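Render this sequence as a predicted structure.
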Amino acid sequence: MDYDRKVLRFFVTSEGEQYVWHYFLADDTIEIREVHFANDGRDSFSIYLRRQKLPETFAVNQPGQNFIGDRYLTCDEICFGKDLIAYGRPFEIRGVDRFTNEYFVEKFNREFPLCDIEQPAPRKPVERQIPPHNGFGNEIDSLGYVFDLIPKKPKIDFFKYVDNDRKILRYTARFNTRIPEDVDRRFIISFYLADDTISVFEPAQKNSGFLEGPFLKRFKYKNVDNNNEFITPSHLPIGGDVRINGYSFHLLSCDDYTTKYLATNTYQ
């Protein structure tokens, strides 16, 4: 009754695995428990050795002979630096808890290092590899399949969309080319401020041989000459060049609204 619920706790290792020895002072029995962690790859059997008296020696002899000796392990025989033996398997003592250390100091004038279960080192984070966009569909929408198992609809900047609805910057441009058939071709580049998309339209010209209509559909295009960043009005200088979807354009002019907008707004 004096030692009821008083348990000595030893933190040990064996063959690279952690275990916890419980020594019950009430009846000198021993229990060995395995230490498990998440995804450690081992079967989660909590008890390695059920509570029992641990024989000091044992042997597998002939039938009719004693298998286990008469002497059992007691707490006075346990000291730091000496392995604990359980049925032939050694366990190295790493330390004890505070109660166990105080008990050995008071009872046997023997100290143990304080210890606890050693947590495994955190795994290195896996670097997420984002595949290059294949050109089909919206790139931001396609990234949803990379970050989520069930992709979510990409969110837009609502206030930007409302404030810049129907605001379009328009430029006239031509090809940067020496091909005779393409020298005189003209294009209208439209930049939509609501969502930073671009469309390219080719107007009709007499005897050009090309039909009037959309040249590039409305889409967000990247500037390959500027670290593959999405094209903004700052990438569309009058008299300068810009590459859109592999086509190199030279900007000739812009309409009056675009001139006034660029004069009063700084767009990064």
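Summary. The two ends are 79 Å apart (CA to CA). The domain at 157-264 is CATH 2.30.29.170 (PH-domain like).
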